[in-house]
Write the structure tokens for this entry.
Amino acid sequence: MTEIFGVPASVLLGQLLLGLINGSFYALLSLGLAIIFGMLNVINFAHGAFYMLGGFAAWFLLSQLGLDYWTTLIVAPIMVGALGVLVERLLLKRLYRMDHLYSLLLTFGIAMMVEGLFRHLFGSAGKPYPVPPSLTGGINLGFMFLPMYRGWVIVVSLVVCILTWFAIERTKLGAYLRAATENPALVQAFGINVPLMLTLTYASCVGLAGFAGALAAPLYQVSPGMGSSIIIVVFAVVVIGGMGSIGGAIVTALGLGITEGLTKTFYPAASSIAVFVIMVLVILIRPSGLFNREA
């Protein structure tokens, strides 16, 4: 059996694949967090709760309403985004001009209430979500066996991240949005509904979290704690990439996912803290993040 640095190649490639999958979910979640902070100036600690809601929405649509996987993958993020509209309109819009601490405390409270409610309703064990029949099996790449669903997760996550980055950084809509965060009164004077734009931005970003939850459902059990178990790592990704840096969030998420996979291969005991060690080093050396334009 071929070995790489004393490790069987199949083991190393398997861990890299697992790290890339984790990095794909980190990218989808950190992308939404970076946009919300950069555009709305809000630290959205409820992002993990919206990720969990996406998973439960997909489970409910599949198991209770009998919809197929592809329909749930579209409808679940829309449901989460609609809930995001209510949260932004009723609560968050009152905090835009206040210190970040207020939005952090509010969204943290929302996350705790949502998770507690779902633990009460569904327990902590979680709900199974089957892999869709069209994505079962795998592909033999010669050097490893790639499960179809895991490959689908990586591809669709990258496509969604790139399209979102392009929409924010390279389109007229993104330019309007960036201008609205800098000078909302001026943009409003040109006839653009800035409050509606901010509401739709927040809804789209939490919808991304819901999409990630629906995408993760067949890989992991849908459970009330699935959001709280990932959100701390996602915040670390955003800090390392640079708060508000969209491209930095995507690149950092994928890089840290691969780093986790390599750490699990060569030094498993450190795999759970590798991301946070990197975060501490980045904060000490480059406090504004690796990709922050204002660094």
Notes: The two ends are 47 Å apart (CA to CA). The chain has one domain: 7-285.
